[in-house]
Amino acid sequence: MKIGIDARLYGPKVGGGGLGRYVEQLVTELQRIDKKNRYVLFLKKDNFDTCKITNPNFKKVLADVHWYTVAEQIKMPKIVDAEKCDFVHYPHWNIPLRAKTPFMVTIHDLIMLEEPNSNKASNLDPIRYHLKYAGYKTVLRRAVNKAKQIIAVSNFTKGSILKNFTVKPDKIDVIHEGVTHLRQDFGGQAVKRPFEAPYLLYVGNAYPHKNLESLLHAFSFFHRLHPEVKLVLVGKKDAFWKWLEQEFDEIDVPHESVIFFGYASEEELDQLYEHAALYVFPSRHEGFGLPPLEAMARGVPVAASKTTAIPEILGDAAVYFYPDDIEGMVEVMEQGLTDAKLREKLISKGTSQVKKYSWSTMAREILELYNKQG
User: Which H helix or E strand runs over 106?
Assistant: First the structure.
């Protein structure tokens, strides 16, 4: 078969930590395990050279079209259909309405439908926002209804799809994501400590559903108990981070105690995880949740929200709080930092939990779905 993959989101630097990592690892593992099918990878200019071809059955096609745009609807169908693939795998719901090539789709979450705060988050004026939101629902509905098969990254996401759309359960396969073990070889040298003080860590974006405002408010109380502890927030700077920094200006915490790190390279992220005292994941809504698993893989205890897919994915390897309970968040952060027995238990369970998730297993299960389409 000739299989297309919309790889425009390839790599965390271009596609973001979750989606970018998913596409990157899927392409990497498929090149390793599939010597039979032929593949066409549709890439943007920003990641065209980054994506390395290691399997002669794979080829790259430039599709320098940004997602969620009118250009995507107009240009992508021509680029994709011209390759005459048997089908295309879109790793996100943003499938051009006019594309004629059959497709399957991965749906990571339905946050824009189910999380009101994220629905309202936009830099657009109200008219353009409502037009764009209507377009989102149209594209998503077609993706669900017309897909040959749907991949959901968790049972929670599958349930969300079934709740919001009329679709047969057997059309949806739950295939979990994997965990990237970031530990690198530094030539025998110790990993550099990024900050002298103990610090709590968050890695991800600052979209409203990530609930970072609540984390900042919780940290303002936590800091009174532990003034020596810092909070390090890692993520590519955008309008949402700027809004969060403005919110931070209104919170009673010394500015030097909260570090807006910005985008972190793989090496920097490795260092940040290595020395974190506790990873905190306050999100209100997740379809999967990669960063806390990455933290567990590095031996960092995790405190996380008890909501949506998070308990399904993290199991009993995290200590939980409810996302809108500031007092409870402070209490759990306190336990995760100071309770030595709890920390030892979380680290041990985290090491076992991450073994359940493998990019190679994910790719093999997706390849099985590909082969069934032939």
Answer: strand 103-107
Torsional class of 211: left (φ above 0), alpha (ψ -120 to 50), beta (otherwise): left
Residue 4 pLDDT greater than 70, yes or no: yes
pLDDT at 122: 54
In 82-235, alpha helices (H): 111-114, 116-119, 126-146, 155-164, 212-225
The percentage of residues in the chain with a pLDDT greater than 90, rounded to a whole number, is 78
Looking at the structure, tell me whether residues 232 and 338 fall in a common domain: yes
CATH of the domain at 81: 3.40.50.2000
Q: List the domain range (segments joined by +) for residue 256.
A: 199-356
| pLDDT tens, residue by residue, 125-179 | 566 666 667 778 888 999 999 999 999 999 999 999 999 999 999 999 999 999 9
Q: How many structural domains are present in the chain? A: 2
CA-CA distance, 208 to 116, in Å (whole number)?
9
CB 96 within 8 A of CB 76: yes
pLDDT higher than 80, residue 123: no
| Structure tokens, 314 | 């993290």
Report the C-alpha gap between 319 and 311 in whole angstroms.
Answer: 10
Q: Counting Cβ atoms within 10 Å, is residue 173 exposed (0-12), middle (13-18) or buried (19+)?
A: middle
In a domain, 190, yes or no: no
The DSSP result for 9-73, as a single string, is T-SHHHH-HHHHHHHHHHHHHHHHH-SSSEEEEEE-HHHHTTS---STTEEEEE----TTSHHHH
In angstroms, the CA 85 to CA 92 distance is 18
CA separation (Å) from 281 to 77, 173, 201, 214, 318?
A: 38, 27, 9, 11, 10
One domain, residues 24 and 44: yes
Confidence of residue 327 (pLDDT cuts 50, 70, 90): very high
Same domain for 71 and 163, yes or no, is yes
Is residue 342 scored above 80 in pLDDT?
yes
152 vs 149: CA distance, rounded Å:
10
In a shared domain, residues 343 and 224: yes
Q: Quote the radius of gyration of the chain (alpha carbons, Å).
A: 21
pLDDT of 113 reads: 84
Phi, psi (5° rounding) for residue 301?
-65, 150
At which residue do the structure tokens 């093999």 appear?
A: 364
Mean pLDDT over 191-199 rounds to 74
